[in-house]
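Notes from the 1:1 (GR / supervisor)

We went over the backlog. Supervisor wanted to see one worked example end to end before approving the batch request, so GR pasted a single chain during the call. The sequence is below; no edits were made to it. Supervisor asked that the structure be written out right there so they could see what the output format looks like.
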Amino acid sequence: MADEPRNDKEPEEIPTTPPEGELVEGPQPAEPPESRPGVASPLMGEEIPTTPPAEETPMPELQSAIPDAAPEEPTPEPKKKPRRKKRGKERLPSACNVIDCTRDHQQFWRFTGGRSMKLVDVRDTELDEPVPQKYTRRDTSQMWQPHCQNDAWLPMDQVFLKVIQLPECEPEELHDMVELQLEKNSPIPVSQASWTFDVAPNVGERNDGRQTVVMIVADEAMVEDQVAQLEEIGYAPDRLEVPVVHQVFSVAREAEAVDGAWIYPRMLETGPVCTIAWWSGGVLRDLSVTHLSSVNNLNELTEHITASAWAGEMAGWLPEKPAWHLVAERELAERWLPHLNEWAGQGVQVHDPPETAELAAASAQRAARPLDEANLLPEEHRTRHHRDDVDRVWLAGAGWLLMFYALFVTGYFYMLNILRDDQVTAEDARDQSEQKLKPLEKEEEKFLKKKEYDRMRLMAAKCLEVVATRLPQGMTLEGLTFNDGKENRKNLSLNGVVPEDQTEKIDEFQNSLISEKLTGNEPLFAQVQFNQIIDTGRVGTGFKSWVITCELNMDRTKREPRKKKR
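Structure output shown during the call:
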């Protein structure tokens, strides 16, 4: 920022009491203390009256703002925000992005998680430059555990900050307690406001049973405009916050003596904007934002600080000797310091402001907080983002499933073609082998037929031998039939005559046939059956006719010719 011309005129005398008719912020006692007509000024050593003069009249602006007989309009109900869930163990996300589009250029920081957030990339580009998609790609874990992956900053000059002291309570009850204070403290109609809160740290232990909460309120239309601008560059925010809050809270951890006023100026296109934080007893007491018309017009700043100090004196929290701290860049501090020292009557301590990347790191380090804490992003946007995350995961899963199915089908048909080719190749090889085996098969067929024929000849000769040797004396063989067919069970049929008084020789002959062996222990006949014995029909002969059928013991399975398999 270019240096502006230095004002060589003598600094004007700054009043230590508010001008007549000025409305002072902060709580005021119901009755002025009677014991003290005035209190010592913490600023210039003068007395600051605790009661307005008798002739003082209300502010004309306030009178004109109150109609004489206007009916009371119904108070709009504040927007209901979901209750906060009980906080579990906070775990940093795997990655967090922080973006600042509140000035004339865009700054982007990329952090990766672990035990702490580590800065891995920084971008400083034009305001409308799209954010690379590789950074804004949403985590799959957003489906079941929404967390802050994309953090964005809001302009501090368009956000109202208010410190309230509330009784200690459970974390899930704090939201409702802050909501009860919203209508009383919000400068914006509740129906048009987007609000949230953050719990401020204390220096040391606090034993009064209260806690400090910073109420953060912004115009809903402004928030919607900021979200629309971020989405135009491809950035879907999970949290909208004001970085100066991190800077104010860091004092409780880093400063040795925190009590007093801390001034945080920031240069914007519209002019300097100063955030003033008051600490007393290690507790944050007041937090406000004031706009200056120019960098050299410090009267506006000192008037605002004077009014805040007067309100703090009346509320009872102003330190007896407040310290003054200016957190500004060296060039600005050198310009402001002489005037602030003369006005405060004591030395103003100058502190180097943190780098913007350090504020981004503070935002990323607190990314594990629930999304409904210190977040001005409207609930409908968070719901839409979560719904988009769920749809994206399901669509991605369906896409992967379809891809695997397509790969499976492609692989199936590819392998099927390979198997078919292998099958054709194998069949061709088999056909060639069969062509080579045909002569051998014919020789084998001849050999098997000859072997079977020789066996049947052997069995036929054996049958003739058995009948000739086993036929009992006195029995007469009149007929012998031999059939070598495998389908015929009567391979050998014998018939003859026997004297009537020697019929027992038929059984003797039958048993001898049954016990006959072909080779070794293999029986010659599988079954020998004596059918019948009848008279011969010859007059006066005295003989009986007999018939015996034998089934050869042989393999009756038909040998079929080999078929060509396809």
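Supervisor's comment: Residues 221 and 296 are 32 Å apart (CA to CA).
Batch request approved.
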